[in-house]
Amino acid sequence: QKEVEQDPGPLSVPEGAIVSLNCTYSNSAFQYFMWYRQYSRKGPELLMYTYSSGNKEDGRFTAQVDKSSKYISLFIRDSQPSDSATYLCAMSYGGGADGLTFGKGTHLIIQP
Amino acid sequence: GAVVSQHPSWVICKSGTSVKIECRSLDFQATTMFWYRQFPKQSLMLMATSNEGSKATYEQGVEKDKFLINHASLTLSTLTVTSAHPEDSSFYICSAARAENLGTIYFGEGSWLTVV
User: Fold this and answer.
1) Position A1 confidence tier, pLDDT thresholds 50, 70, 90
2) Mind listing the pLDDT tens digit for each residue in A43-82?
3) Residue A16: pLDDT over 90
4) Record: contact A100-B59, CB cut-off 8 A
5) Do A100 and B35 meet the contact criterion of CB atoms below 8 Å apart?
6) Beta-strand pair B90-97/B105-107
């Protein structure tokens, strides 16, 4: 079993829809949970991070962490074609003090 | 704007030569930086942890003599791919975090290496 599981997609939804992306993980020691967006041939861009369990909202994005289930989610409201990209979940023990363990990424396509 | 910068963005080199990639934190000091590698349609895999003023820590399976890391200052880490082979062709990305906010981990734009 891989440490972080993420459905690679592609996930195709119509513009304006709510998008739900998620990851599961096996290591209960992870404390920091991040979501990155990556466009083709570019470095990942940090969208959100959450420490331990809970929800966090930033504009159209909401991140949720359920440590008891080892499950994290990213919701995108009012999705736009410009949101089309690969979304990577990542996690670590000590945030910036440790390297990140990434999921494989989900390729998201927002249809105009 | 970018807070972590990488150079070069892309490089083509001949098999057997060495290539150096630079990673800079632009507006903060980073005692620790990280180097990742990403093959096409694969996720990022941590290669090594670069520590300012001390030796890098390599992940299992990564050859430390092939991938030389130097963290000479608080804003600069370099990755040198020595005696490059075509199988080293990949996307190399560095990251750094602000010490005052460990969750904000920023990545550089990445460096595409093609070994011919």
Assistant:
1) low
2) 999 999 898 888 999 999 999 999 999 999 999 999 999 9
3) yes
4) no
5) no
6) antiparallel
Smallest CA-to-CA distance from A72 within A94, A87, A85, A59 is with A87
For the purposes of burial, counting CB atoms within 10 Å of the CB of A73, is it exposed (0-12), middle (13-18) or buried (19 or more)?
middle
CB-nearest partner of A49 from B34, B104, B109: B104
Q: Give the contacts of A25 (CB within 8 A, at least 6 positions apart).
A: A3, A4, A5, A70, A71, A72, A91, A101
Cα distances (angstroms) measured from residue A89 to each of A8, A21, B63: 11, 9, 27
Q: If residue B67 lies in a helix (H) or strand (E), which one and from where to where?
A: strand B67-73
**With contacts defined as CB-CB under 8 Å, which chain B residues touch A45?**
107
The mean per-residue pLDDT over the stretch B18-30 comes to 93
When pLDDT is cut at 50, 70 and 90, the band that residue B6 belongs to is very high
Among A33, A65, A53, smallest CA distance to B103 is for A33
CB atoms closer than 10 angstroms to residue B109:
17
